[in-house]
Specification:
single chain, alpha/beta, Immunoglobulin-like, Rossmann fold, 2 domains, 8-stranded mixed sheet, 5-stranded mixed sheet, 18 strands, elongated
Length: 396
């Protein structure tokens, strides 16, 4: 349809009106806020069958202080131009119930109907209680070597523990977060400690996702390996050539000593549905083994370039014999290059073992082969965002 002079005038009027109402910059061009995945902290619980007049609840958890919280959205009674005031329930809870919606909507909370929440839009499910824990100001998280001398009674040794806290966690004291546990913690954050000076870029990956909504914000806990004990702790059995076989005790350390401290000191979501274990090489081997032994704790398993070859490929047998509970979702990957071809054939067989158990590609299982990739930190760093996207999900 041709654009007339009157149409141009109308567009100009709308743009000026939106600016006056405090709309975000992207609305200046006539575009509503991003319809991607919601911010961290979305919880949806069933409130009834979609029906005429069904109650849909929008709930915001945020310590707003003296400020008020409003909601704008994509469908009546909401608009993107002016917010509806939410009701203050307590110091950290704001709520709004509507009965005129006929379908899901996109929405966002605002402080004083002026400051938009960060990240993509939320999805408000029809006939549900849609609880979110947003942030309005922070764009980046922080990492520290939080516990430099974490001592395990079970293993009889000491290691450092790195912790990354996402931006919503740091700003919103009402927010609770999933936790991603990772092995070889010294390779995740600090180039001065990482093997070859190459890190996995965990803070950058997590901050990017917090802002583009690719996956849910999460706390990351990186346990350093114990130096010479790494082979022993990351292997489930003893290999005739390399020894090892202390993996079950290492997993007990994670479950019985480290996780309780994390859950006690940080605002976590402690259930297995919100607890990831991910690692590479021998770390991938022990992560996959954790899906056999500790799936009641680690419901989301990531095995990157796992050392399936260990002890005559014993992992293929143990995975194929896994009983319930089993991991909720499993991510498996490798490259296909270098001297070992990154174990691509063995890793394909591991993915096949999961399929035999009933895992479905793209739903409960994701198997990735990165062409040209070798057994290196940089390759694992490049695949980490995709692994976490599958395991954590966007949280809609």
């Amino acid at each position: 349809m041709p654009v007339t002079t009157s149409m141009r005038t109308s567009v100009l009027f709308v743009s000026l009106f939106l600016l006056a109402c405090g709309a975000p910059p992207e609305l200046d061009a006539g575009v509503t806020p991003d319809a991607g995945a919601p911010d961290a902290g979305l919880t949806t619980t069933d409130a009834g069958t979609p029906d005429a007049g069904i109650v849909t609840v929008l709930r915001v958890k945020y310590p707003a202080g003296t400020r008020a919280v409003f909601a704008r959205g994509s469908k009546p009674p909401f608009t993107w131009n002016t917010g509806l005031p939410m009701v203050k329930v307590d110091d950290t809870t704001w709520s709004l119930s509507v009965t005129t919606l006929k379908d899901d909507l996109e929405w966002k909370p605002l402080l004083d109907d002026a400051t938009w929440s960060k990240g993509p839009n939320y999805i408000g499910r029809l006939g549900a209680v849609n609880e979110v824990a947003p942030r309005f100001f922070r764009d980046a998280g922080e990492w520290t070597r939080r516990w430099p001398t974490f001592t395990s009674t079970l293993l009889g040794n000491t290691r450092g523990i790195y912790v990354y806290l996402p931006p919503t966690y740091l700003e919103n004291t009402a927010a609770r977060m999933p936790v991603v546990y990772m092995h070889d913690g010294q390779n995740l954050f600090d180039p001065n400690a990482a093997f070859g000076g190459v890190t996995w870029g965990v803070p950058q990956t997590m901050d990017t996702a917090a802002n583009d909504g690719r996956f849910r914000e999460a706390i990351v806990v990186g346990a350093e390996n114990a130096g010479g004990a790494r082979i022993s702790e990351y292997t489930p059995t003893s290999d005739p050539m390399y020894g090892g076989g202390n993996g079950d005790l290492y997993l007990r350390m994670l479950v019985e000593e480290l996780k309780p401290r994390v859950d006690a000191e940080l605002r976590t979501k402690p259930s297995r549905e919100d607890t990831v274990l991910i690692g590479s090489s021998l770390g991938g081997l022990i992560s996959s083994h954790a899906g056999v032994r500790k799936a009641d704790t680690f419901g989301l398993i990531g095995a990157m370039s796992p050392s399936v070859w260990w002890d005559s490929r014993v992992l293929l047998t143990t995975v194929s014999q896994t009983t319930t509970p089993r991991p909720i979702r499993v991510y498996v990957d490798s490259g296909d290059s270098g001297n070992s071809n990154d174990g691509v054939t063995d890793t394909r067989e591991l993915a096949a073992a999961y399929r035999t158990l009933g895992y479905v590609e793209g739903s409960t299982l994701k198997h990735v082969v990165q062409p040209g990739a070798t057994h290196t930190e940089s390759a694992w760093a490049s695949r980490l965002p995709g692994a976490l996207e599958f395991l954590l999900g966007p949280g809609r």
